[in-house]
Amino acid sequence: MDYGMGPELEQFRLEVRAFIEANAPAIPPKAGVRSAENRAEHALIMEWMGKLYAAGYMGGDWPEQYGGRGSAYSSERDVVVGEELARARAPYFAGAGELISHALIDFGTEDQCQRYLPGIRSGRDTWCQLFSEPSSGSDLASLRTKAVRTENGGFRINGQKVWTTNGHWADYGYLLARTDPDAPKHKGISALVVDMTLPGVDVRPLREMTGTSDFNEVFLDNVELPADALIGELNSGWSIANSSLVHERSSTATTVVRLRQSIGALTDLAKSVHRGGRPAIEDGAVQETLGKFTAEVEALSALVYANISRWSRGTERVHDAPMAKLMFSELGVEIARFALELSGEAGILVEGDPGAVDNGRWQDEFLYARAYTIAGGSSEIMRNIIAERGLKLPR
Length: 395
Ligand SMILES: Cc1cc2nc3c(=O)[nH]c(=O)nc-3n(C[C@H](O)[C@H](O)[C@H](O)COP(=O)(O)OP(=O)(O)OC[C@H]3O[C@@H](n4cnc5c(N)ncnc54)[C@H](O)[C@@H]3O)c2cc1C
Known about the structure:
By secondary structure, the protein is α+β, with helices and mostly antiparallel strands.
């Protein structure tokens, strides 16, 4: 099997690379993954997102009347864009804009599309994903936030959400709430748009062990939504959410790029630190570990490209994406742990500390790597899907 991209896509890659070099905002790279540090920085990143949409590098699969590329679109192009953004370590906004846009395009009204899609494309509006709750993450369908119909046909929302990435910058939220408490749990949920400036919406940033605040608790206390906040049919929120989550698939290719970068930096680290009076890179055990990581990343790369190929041919299997997700997230934890081990005592220093190894990169990666084993479905859930639905093992 040839997993190469072919000359046309490699030409496209050069075009994207040049675009990123010329246009990405000059925000200095940080030690790890994190939300914008202030509103001005967030605005710069959103403006950059707007440029990516305008150039056709994002949202290419949207219908042409909303700015999509029509027959010029291919999912491989999305992969190339993701890889190049990761390669350049360019800022990127991890919000819910892509997610909600697909929900609106597939299930929303023409009026909703006209109202919300332009703000996503231009980078004017920031969206967050209001799905998870304190007792509903893996078992999302058990969510308890209520949306009760009001006399004017609208909805009154009460409940609590958590883990809301970038909720503190969001103008709008893509909400799942229970509209029929008597229906089976998957069938009583609706999808709604929340204007985050409405009275009763209280966003409280959570401070994480990395020291930063990327996500939030969101309290919804008698929030009144208009009737046209509903996306699609009443009580069809579960299938809307699942259908829009499918559009997150192309992002796995970027993880291969990031893991390769980490292994490159890890190799440099092994050259610069000493073990037993010699550079650590000369230690056979260190070489063996670097070799193992490299082999695993290349295996992941083959899997990711095979998945992309199956996806574009419509032959994707249910356990394909979970296998890749499991591999990249668990490998990320192992690489960061090994980097800290090599760093010795200096490994506990963080970004900005004098003497911090690689300006605290590894300390941050070590603390943050765990998040990837949870976000978007935990490792245990991925293993369950692979076992039960892929290998058809008993539940
Ligand atoms: C960085 C990050 C960003 C996020 N951003 C958002 C966001 O913007 N919006 C949003 O809505 N959500 C977001 N999430 C939430 C994410 O979707 C949930 O954390 C995830 O689904 C897991 O749910 P939970 O945290 O409630 O853990 P739980 O579901 O309570 O799981 C706890 C533990 O039990 C295990 N477990 C649970 N069920 C099973 C089972 N059936 N079999 C075996 N083991 C099981 C899990 O693997 C885990 O180890 C984010 C999470 C992270 C880490």
